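To: structure desk
From: M.T.
Subject: fold request, one chain
Message: Could you run this one when you get a chance? Sequence is below, nothing fancy, just the single chain.
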Amino acid sequence: KKLVPTWDTLASELKGKANIAKIDCTQHQSVCTEAGVRGYPTLKLFENGEDKEKYASGRTLSAFVTYLKDKNVIAKDVVVSGAEENAPKKEEKKEEVAEKKPESEEKEK
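Reply: Done. Structure tokens follow.
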């Protein structure tokens, strides 16, 4: 249920570039059995009707877009609205500065 909005956005944004589909295995058991679906959700990459591989990475829009680009399903220059917002951000290095008080100030207290 959590994946539905992201999946629907992906399908909408890539319409005409890639076929993003979902199948209700309670309604289409034979299709799911043939595809080896044992748990839900199961995400798979198919190419020309052939089962290529099971997807086992992040569940964000950015992760899906990156995967599809890496697999040459969509062109590297395809832009998907909202994908950049969900991209993992590089950690910023933070410097912590501790100031040691002069010994004279410590003795005064």
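Reply (cont.): Strands lie at 44-47, 50-54. Let me know if you need anything else for the meeting.
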